[in-house]
Amino acid sequence: MPPLTHGADAVLDELRRLSDARPLRAIDAATLMTERAALCGFPMAGAVSAGGACHILPVRDGVIALNLPRDADWELLPALLEDDQAGASGWAGLAAMAAGHEADMLIDRARLLGLAAARADRMPPAETPMAWMRMAAPAARPLSVGPLVLDLSSLWAGPLCGHLLERCGARVIKVESPGRMDGARRGNAHFYGLLNQGKQCLSLDLADPADRGHLLDLIATADIVIESSRPRALRQWGIDAEQLVANHAGLTWIAISGHGRGAPQEDWIGYGDDAAAAAGMCVAMREAVGELVFAGDAIADPLTGIHAALAAWKGWMAGGGIFAALSLRQVVSHCLHRERARRGDAMRLDLARWHGAGSGQVPLRAIDRPVGAVGEDNGALLCARLPC
Amino acid sequence: MQLKAGTKLHSSVCDTDVMVIKGSGDVALTCGGAEMVIARNGASGDVDPAFASGTAMGKRYQSADGQVELLCIKPGKGTLAIDGVPLEIKAAKALPSSD
């Protein structure tokens, strides 16, 4: 069993119960959490993440996780380490340089620079459950027509949320910017297809007032919006999530972030492995196997996607008016503390067994709906609104 | 002033703070028409109206020859310039293909 699958399966069970969706029956948490690594042939995670971009780095007074998934991230290393040669000799040179610095100083600077970094040697205490988690299961709503979902997100957590809603019977429109498409399109094609099949594809340039108008029109008719942008990125285009939920009574807004909303953390970026480290996942692994290592493949991403889908579905069933902020770190923290409290030693044994055995075999899911190109449905979706 | 990767610089006439991403050596870097400083010295002046188009949080600014690059870590009203030539905003980084 991959780490933390028990809680994730319980969330999927509730989504199945509420949606009564047949296509969801074939989906289990272990598959969702390991299918990317299986498709990409990623090795077992250790002090390097399965995907290879996130490393555990011992520093002067602790241990950090630093994630550099973009080539452009490497251009920022001289500023991070105040050394023109930083990054010139790959991870080995970087580790040697980082060893001389203090953890909090490196993390603060990384956050200013827009790099994903977190302490890997701490497990923050359990937090008060997020409001959306305490949301009561709503009374059943007649499900003759599924919700309309606008998926503005990219990479893994948000698109997985949109995918699960699509499996529940939602109509999903994936919105991308023409100059900045979902980066996952350049990754493994089967994995991209699994998470984005059956979504209509719309391309809108938010720098263009007309396109911004189209987006606001669509939001006004949508039941659910999924986004994973930093709030300042949407606000610069006049899109204020909380205000939109206040103005459109039926709307459920799913805001996915690395570390949560509010200053200063809403400006920090986070990906699946470093956010899991921030929540204490590497410490949980140390308790199980004796060393600080990563658990799973970007484990915060699939866990957040699964939780976000349930929050979205519940919000829609309750008639909207819900703003659900989910952070990768907070979701992992919630799952980790829940599983420690309920399973304790059994969880430690699972983690040790999983670490020793590798991810094992998961059945490869097939793609059964079309996968759209960027903006493929612009004609159909925009002609209905414009004389053309 | 001497630039070095990682140095934080402050505007002396507005709220702008930047971090040096790239660049070295002696450069006449101004914000709002006044030279930027390493430590805020309490001095205050006015933003030169000719250099008042402002800085935006998280944006990267570069010189035309690409030799100097700065990251805005606190926005303000002044325009960043070297030798009187305003710096250009660099396009946002592409999204990664995976994490």
UniProtKB/TrEMBL annotation, chain A:
Pfam families: CoA_transf_3. InterPro entries: CoA-trans_III_biosynth/detox, CoA-Trfase_fam_III, CoA-Trfase_III_dom_1_sf. It comes from Sphingobium baderi LL03. GO terms for molecular function: catalytic activity. This is Acyl-CoA transferase.
TrEMBL record, chain B:
It comes from the Bacteria. This is Uncharacterized protein. It comes from Sphingobium wenxiniae (strain DSM 21828 / CGMCC 1.7748 / JZ-1). The lineage of its organism: Bacteria, Pseudomonadati, Pseudomonadota, Alphaproteobacteria, Sphingomonadales.
